[in-house]
Design goal:
The protein has 119 residues and is of the alpha+beta class. The protein has a single domain, classed as Dimeric alpha+beta barrel (Alpha-Beta Plaits, 2-Layer Sandwich), CATH 3.30.70.1060. Helices cover 27% and strands 36% of the residues. The chain has three helices and six strands. The strands form two sheets. A four-stranded antiparallel β-sheet has the order 2-5-1-6. It is globular, with a radius of gyration of 16 Å. The two termini are 23 Å apart.
């Protein structure tokens, strides 16, 4: 089953665009282990929420705003898509990710009928 690991961290951490050498090594080590296991399908870091553009449609009007729509203490900083045998394996994989030690990782299964778009 395919799961998305959604990385949420405090604003101050998410605002850092340059990672420390230790964090970079930890992330690379996790990714290498997951690739060896054959579970990591893709992943990436996101720009800080201040770089976001929010799009909503209300009564056929497209409303565009700079920044995030919701005011929260944490923001989404990145994601990984993994293919696991079950939720227990996805949780084990998420618990090894460096973000789990400094923020939160939400583990969410894809719906069985979801499609992957490719270019």
């Amino acid at each position: 089953m395919k799961y998305m690991l959604i990385h949420c961290v405090e604003h101050a951490i998410a605002e850092e665009t340059d990672l420390s050498a230790d964090t970079e090594r930890s992330l690379n080590s996790w990714a290498e282990e997951m690739m060896r296991r054959g579970v990591l399908l893709e992943g990436g870091r996101l720009s800080p929420a201040r770089d976001a553009t929010t799009v909503r449609v209300r009564d056929h009007d497209v409303l565009i705003a700079d920044g995030p729509f919701a005011e929260t203490k944490e923001q989404v900083a990145g994601y990984d898509v993994v293919e696991c045998a079950n939720l227990d394996e996805a949780i084990e994989i998420a618990s090894k990710h460096p973000t789990a030690g400094m923020g939160t990782i939400e583990v969410r299964p894809f719906l069985p009928d979801s499609r992957t778009m490719s270019s």
